[in-house]
Amino acid sequence: MLGRGLIAAAAFACALFTGAAAQAQQTLEAIKARGQLICGIHTGVAGFALPDSRGTWQGMDVDLCRGLAVAIFNDPARVRFVPLSSSTRFTALGSGEVDVLFRTSTQTMLRDTTLGLRHAVTYFYDGHGFMVRANAGISKASEMAGATICLIQGTTNEQVTADYFRSIRQGFQPVLFERTDQAVAALVAGRCDAFGTDASQLAGARSSLPNPKEWTILPERFSKEPHGAYVRRDDPQWFDLVRWYTYALIEAEEQGVTKANAEEMRRTSQNPNTRRLLGVTPELGESLKLDRSWAYNVIRAVGNYGEIYDRTMGPDTPVGLERGPNEIWTRGGLLYALPLR
């Protein structure tokens, strides 16, 4: 009797686990049934996500969301953007309010192990910095002892700033805000001596000010901030799709496949890697349960990684950021696509 009871209990537990696993494997199916990807983005920072004069969202994270919609539907318009603050973004993802976060979110150990979420792959390397008035006479962070510093609540930048001033045995006064635009407004109004956040966001915020030359981003970097898409931990299939979608954009740049030449390369290239990437052979799409042309469609719609970067925050944009560590590995950067084969 005891043996039969244990067997029955084990079978019941197995059935519960199998049912939960089956239920978890539904993100892609739910998106297809809904007919729309729901993408969590920043509430507003130039370069990553900011509405233009017509109210249309623009930026790297926005384009990554549109590209993912193309991978699924072959239609960049089939995405709904949900602006999320730093303090609510992970809760919104965990509760199912959004399908994925493309929202300047740093991978850290505790986020990876305690939130029930997964960081798919790093697509932007950044570091914490400070922005001050150009005429403030400040050339390095150690000269800001006792300063009032604007910070965004719920970010790694809170801890990084506190850790830095603790390390030099100096005090500072934090002023916390929910959104970047609130912190920037407080900085301009003189409520803060400096604004501390990721250097790319400082550049984006500065580009939106009436006179960007009045502001200086100090050259020091105080942390590693690898940004990547986040998804829920309970759906490995969706994690794989978001992960390899991101790699495909980097791989396209490595192979020299662009928005302009993708069609010709698909037709003429004899490189097996290029033929796989562009769907001449079907195995990559089949492995992700997507159309064989998914990556080709994405590149044709939004370009490769470098094209997205240059269009949204590169040297010829108001944000004006050089590639630096966000260059591909063959040109001295950190971006590296795992083999798509």
TrEMBL record:
The keyword Mitochondrion does not apply. InterPro entries: Bact_solute-bind_prot3 (IPR051455), Solute-binding_3/MltF_N (IPR001638). It comes from the Bacteria. GO terms for biological process: amino acid transport. Coiled coil: none annotated. Keywords: Signal, Transport. Residues 36-265 form the Solute-binding protein family 3/N-terminal domain. Residues 1-24 form the signal peptide. SUPFAM superfamilies: Periplasmic binding protein-like II (SSF53850). The keyword Mitochondrion does not apply. Belongs to the bacterial solute-binding protein 3 family. This is Amino acid ABC transporter substrate-binding protein. It comes from Roseicella aerolata. The lineage of its organism: Bacteria, Pseudomonadati, Pseudomonadota, Alphaproteobacteria, Acetobacterales.
